[in-house]
Amino acid sequence: MTVSSPTPQQTNRSKPVTRKPTRQAQLRQLLSRKSGATIAQIQKAFGWQPHTVRAAISSQRKAGCVIARSDTDTGSVYRIVDEGCDP
User: Fold this and answer.
1) What does the alpha-carbon distance between residue 52 and residue 48 come to, in Å, rounded to a whole number?
2) Is the dihedral of CA 62, 68, 45, 51 positive or negative?
3) Is 31 within 8 Å of 37 (Cβ atoms)?
4) pLDDT at position 71, please?
5) At residue 17, does pLDDT exceed 90?
6) For every residue of 17-84, which 3-state class applies, written as one string?
7) pLDDT of amino acid 18
8) Which DSSP letter does residue 6 get?
9) CA 20 to 30 Å from 28, out of 5, 16, 65, 66?
C-alpha cells in the first residue's frame, strides 16, 4: 500500500490565515483615540523606549498622517487629526 502526498488543492483548504495588525497599525489605533496617547502610554503598550516612540510617530507623519501634539499637565498628548496616511 502506497501513501500519496496531498495535492496542492488539499493543502490549500486549511484554515484562513488571520494576521495580527502591524505595530504601525496598532500605533495608528492608539493615536486615533479621542483622548490620543502620551509617550508613556505608547511605551507601556509596546515596550519601547521614548526615542523609539517619537521615531514611530515621526514615521506616521511621513506616511501622511496629520498628528497634533497638545501639552497637558501629564505631558504631551499626540493624536491623529487627519487620517490621510497609508495603511
Assistant:
1) 6
2) positive
3) yes
4) 94
5) no
6) CCCCCCHHHHHHHHHCCCCCEEHHHHHHHHCCCHHHHHHHHHHHHHCCCEEEEEEECCEEEEEEEECC
7) 86
8) P
9) 16
User: What is d(CA 83, CA 61) in angstroms, rounded to the nearest whole number?
Assistant: 10
Distances from the Cα of 62 to the Cα of 23, 67, 78, angstroms: 16, 10, 15
Q: What are the grid coordinates assigned to 3, written together?
A: 501513501
Between residues 37 and 4, which one has the greater pLDDT?
A: 37
The set of cell numbers assigned to 7 is 495535492
CB 84 within 8 A of CB 64: yes
Q: Which residue has the cell 498628548?
A: 77
pLDDT digits (tens, 9 = 90+) for 24-72: 999 999 999 999 999 999 999 999 999 999 999 999 999 999 999 999 8
C-alpha cell, 57: 510617530
